[in-house]
Amino acid sequence: MNKKNYTRILRLFLLMLLAVCFCLPAQASAANPKNRLVTKDGYTYYYNSSRKMVKNKFATIKGQTYYFDKDGHMLVKTLFQVSGKTYYATNKGYIAKNKIISYKGVSYYFDSKGVRKTGWVTYKGYRYYFPQKGDYLVSRWKKLGGYYYYFDSKGHMVKNKWVDSYYINSQGHRTAEPMEKTNSSKVKKISMKNIKQNPELPTGCESVSLTMVLKYYGFNLGKTTIASSYMPRSSSNFVTAFAGNPFSSSGCGIYSPGLTTTANKYLKAKKSSMRAYDLTGISFKDLYRFIDNNTPVIVWNSMYMWTPQASFTTRVNGKTWTFYRYEHCVVLCGYNKKTNKVLINDPLSGLVWRNAKSFESIYNRMGKMAVVIK
């Protein structure tokens, strides 16, 4: 073979070798499945639309999210972290979302993106609390953000109930002191002074009722102190503020959330350890237990027991509230079971006895709003 032919054959061989080198990866890639899960040697892998094995990534497959580690193994039945966030892969591999999962004896909550959440969680209509470490709270009291909460045997935050002689309101806050259940007498009366709202506060019954209770506990304040310095105002929001002007006959009023905030603003300003609690939702008969423990209760009823008439509404924090014509705020400070009457400290009428059944009916219609200070 002459030198010229040898050179030609060598060039042809090199060209063929290069072609093989370039074609092999393409052929190998073409041999991989596309958009498919593959199980091999006990592990499950996923090949994407480019026929490449997914590694160190999430992948969404038929509406479910999965995670594949550095070796391409699909994670199964385990907790794992990605970018500082904790996830859980179920026994079928997909990521748990909007669920409470028990893993190695500890329960965790994972949100709509599959990320573990701690702190307050609402799940299927119930409130839970998940600490940073350990299981969610069960059958115990816990102080959070300055308030004590109770979680039942299922971990649900308790509300509108008595637990260990404490009343827990609609927000889950317990009263500061226990209200012991007593074999109450037929007659109970708390001694407290009356303050008339007129003429200074023609529509300021709420601030005056609060003032009467504060003075009962020994605070020194004037009739108009709360209305002028502590109670927020609004043009139409009667839930968290006073709608209108309490110094005017055209003013409307303020409901229990706003009056509770007002009371606590005053108590904090006076550096008092006492706090106001919104008991809205409590049954009328349960209010007697506070009276038995010498705790007057601010309640919402109507002027002179007239029938409340729906006037206008406002929406606050996703809830629609109705303001009623003849709305009135008074202090419940006694009862007489023999005569079926309750003692009311009324900023308009003074200390008066009202028919308990009629008073309860209006109390219920007004939304069972009540506030105590302890």
TrEMBL record:
PROSITE patterns: CW
Keywords noted in UniProt: Repeat, Signal
SUPFAM superfamilies: Cell wall binding repeat
Domain Peptidase C39-like: 192-347
InterPro entries in alphabetical order: Cell_wall/Cho-bd_repeat (IPR018337), Peptidase_C39-like (IPR039564)
Cell wall-binding repeats: 55-74, 138-157
Highest taxon above the source species: Bacteria
Stretch forming the signal peptide: 1-30
One Pfam family in the UniProt entry: Choline_bind_1
PANTHER family in alphabetical order: LMO0724 PROTEIN, PEPTIDASE C39-LIKE DOMAIN-CONTAINING PROTEIN
Protein name: Cell wall-binding repeat protein
Organism: Marvinbryantia formatexigens DSM 14469
